[in-house]
Specification:
Order of helices and strands: HEHEHEHEHEHEHEHEEHHH
CATH superfamily of the largest domain: Bordetella uptake gene, domain 1
CATH class of the largest domain: Alpha Beta
Structural class: alpha/beta
Number of domains: 2
Largest sheet: 7 strands, mixed
Distance between the termini: 60 Å
Strand content: 15-25%
Shape: globular
CATH topology of the largest domain: D-Maltodextrin-Binding Protein, domain 2
Low-confidence stretches: none
Number of helices: 11
Mean pLDDT: 93
Radius of gyration: 22 Å
Oligomer: single chain
Bound molecules: D-malate
Length: about 325
C-alpha cells in the first residue's frame, strides 16, 4: 500500500476504534458491576457501599454487587481492585486509611493509590466515636483516660488492621494519651463491634455510622467524639478535644475508585450516578441520621476526590510518623 493510503487506512481504523469505544461507553453498563469493599461485611465501609451502591445500580440500570475482600487493614482488597480490568465492571469503595494513612504504616504496599486508581467520587465523610464496653469503669473521658493510664499493657483496644480508620483513630488517641495498650486486630469493625458489645476488649475508635445504633441501644458507652464540634446525633457526648486531648480530630472520608485506565466516559457515567444518589432525598435523610457528612456537588467530582486523596496523604503521613508508629 502507498504511504498516503496507509495513512488513510490507519486514520479510518483509529476512527472506528474511537467510535466503538464511544458506543461501548454509551451502552455501559451492560452487566452487573462489582464493588470491592476491603473490609468485612456488616461494618461501616460495607454499610455505606451498600446504601449508595443499591441506588447507583437503580440509576445505572444494572445491579451493583458488593464483594468484601477483607484483610491486612484493607490492603488486600485495594490491591485486587487496582489489578482488575479497567472496564468499569470492578470498582473499589474505600476510605482514606487504606488509601493515604497506610503509606506511613507499611514498609511497602502492593499498590500506589494515586497512580493505580482512578477517582470516581466522594461517598461521604464520617466522624468517629470513642466507644467502650459497658462494663468499663469510666463514665466520661477523664475517667477513661485515668483508667487506661492505670491499666497499661492490660487494656485492650480493637481495630480493623494496620491502616484501618479504627487504627488511625486509636493510635492517635493512645499516642496523645501517652499510653501503651494491647491492639486487638479484626478484618473490619463490624465483627470488632460485636466483640465490644459482648465485652471481649475494652474500647475502640470507630466511625459513627457503625456504632450509633449500638450506642442508641445502650450496648456500648460513648466517651467522646472525634470532631471539634459535638454531633447532633449525640448532643450529650463531649468532643475528645474539649475533654482534654486538645487537637484530637479525625474524620474519615470514603470514595469510589476504578482501576487506572478506565475510560473517562465510564468514570463520568459512574460519577453522575453517584451524584444523583447523593442528591436523593431518602438517601440524604438516611445518611444524615447516621452522621455521614455528604459532599457538595463541587466536592463530588473525580478531580475533587483526587485532591482530597493527595491532601490526606500530605496531612496524615507526617502526622502518623510523628506519632512514632513504626511501619510494618
Ligand atoms: C470497616 O468497614 O470495617 C472499617 O472501615 C474498618 C476500619 O477502617 O476501621
Amino acid at each position: 500500500m502507498k504511504r498516503r493510503n496507509l495513512i488513510i487506512a490507519a486514520t479510518a481504523a483509529a476512527g472506528v476504534a474511537a467510535l466503538t469505544q464511544g458506543a461501548r461507553a454509551q451502552a455501559y453498563p451492560t452487566k452487573p458491576i462489582s464493588v470491592i469493599v476491603p473490609f468485612s461485611a456488616g461494618g461501616p465501609t460495607d454499610a455505606l457501599a451498600r446504601i449508595l451502591g443499591q441506588r447507583m445500580g437503580e440509576i445505572l440500570g444494572q445491579q451493583i454487587i458488593i464483594d468484601n475482600v477483607a484483610g491486612a487493614g484493607g490492603t488486600i482488597g485495594v490491591a485486587k481492585a487496582a489489578r482488575a480490568a479497567p472496564d468499569g465492571y470492578t470498582l473499589l469503595f474505600a476510605h482514606m486509611g487504606t488509601l493515604a494513612v497506610n503509606i506511613a504504616l507499611y514498609k511497602s504496599l502492593p499498590y500506589d493509590s494515586q497512580k493505580d486508581l482512578e477517582p470516581v467520587g466522594l461517598g461521604g465523610t464520617n466522624p468517629m466515636v470513642l466507644v467502650a464496653k459497658k462494663g468499663l469503669p469510666a463514665k466520661d473521658f477523664a475517667e477513661f483516660m485515668a483508667w487506661v493510664k492505670a491499666n497499661q499493657k492490660k487494656a485492650q483496644y480493637g481495630m480493623a488492621g494496620i491502616g484501618a480508620a479504627s487504627h488511625l483513630g486509636g493510635l492517635m488517641l493512645n499516642s496523645m494519651m501517652k499510653v501503651d495498650v494491647l491492639e486487638i486486630p479484626y478484618k473490619g469493625t463490624g465483627p470488632a463491634l460485636n466483640d465490644l458489645v459482648s465485652g471481649q476488649f475494652d474500647y475502640m475508635v470507630d466511625q459513627a455510622v457503625n456504632v450509633l445504633p449500638q450506642i442508641k441501644a445502650g450496648n456500648i458507652k460513648p466517651l467522646g467524639v472525634s470532631t471539634l464540634k459535638r454531633l447532633p446525633q449525640l448532643p450529650d457526648v463531649p468532643t475528645i478535644d474539649e475533654s482534654g486531648l486538645k487537637g484530637y480530630e479525625v474524620t474519615i472520608w470514603n470514595g469510589f475508585f476504578a482501576p487506572k485506565g478506565t475510560s473517562k466516559d465510564v468514570i463520568a457515567k459512574l460519577n453522575q450516578a453517584l451524584l444523583a444518589t447523593l442528591a436523593d432525598e431518602k438517601i440524604r435523610v438516611r445518611l444524615t441520621e447516621l452522621a455521614v457528612d455528604l459532599p457538595s456537588a463541587a466536592e463530588g467530582s473525580p478531580d475533587a476526590l483526587r485532591n482530597t486523596l493527595k491532601a490526606s496523604i500530605d496531612k496524615w503521613v507526617p502526622a502518623v510518623r510523628a506519632a512514632g508508629v513504626k511501619p510494618e
